[in-house]
Amino acid sequence: MWNIKKHIISFLSILIVLFGKPVPVYGQRVPTALGNIPADPAGLAGWVLTSSIEVAGGIAFLLMAYGGFLFLTSAGDPNKLQEATDVIMSAIAGLLMIIFSVFLLRLIGYDILKIF
Questions:
Q1: Phi and psi dihedrals of 75, rounded to 5?
Q2: What is the pLDDT of residue 113?
Q3: pLDDT at position 20 over 80
Q4: Which of 13, 35, 57, 110 holds its CA 20 to 30 A away from the CA of 81?
Q5: Domain boundaries, the chain
Q6: Is 12 helix (H, G, I), strand (E, B) or coil?
Q7: In the chain, which ranges are continuous DSSP H helix?
Q8: Per-residue confidence band for 19, with pLDDT thresholds at 50, 70 and 90
Q9: In angstroms, what CA-CA distances link 95 with 43, 51, 66, 89?
Q10: CA 48, CA 11: separation in Å to the nearest integer?
Q11: Does the pLDDT at position 7 exceed 80?
């Protein structure tokens, strides 16, 4: 019985692969749960870079909010104040690194090499 089910599943898988959705053409976008992702390599690389920068910025914002929460709830304890200050300063340093990396990528990719 299991052998027949395995053959049916294999046959249906082959049919889906052969006659399923067409492969996207260069320049088209593929709809996914994360949005419409470009099918060409250059567009995909740009999408990955843009998405990762957005996620990193969101994480930096959440870390700054967490540091602010630690600062507000420190109750004057110098160790907790130092920890809160360290979290906020690290988040700001990370955000500055993100901003400068975007600047360098645009400077090198767009202006100098004219890749994108």
A1: 55, 35
A2: 84
A3: no
A4: 57
A5: 2-112
A6: helix
A7: 2-19, 41-72, 78-106
A8: low
A9: 25, 15, 15, 10
A10: 35
A11: no
Residue 55 token pair: 């996620």
* CB of 36 closer than 8 Å to CB of 43: no
Give the type of residue at 69.
Answer: F
Place of tokens 């492969």: 23
Sequence-distant (≥ 6) Cβ neighbours of residue 57 within 8 angstroms: 95, 98
Beta strands at 35-38 and 29-32: parallel, antiparallel or unpaired: antiparallel
Structure tokens at 86: 């360290």
Amino acid 46 reads G
Q: Is 48 helix (H, G, I), strand (E, B) or coil?
A: helix
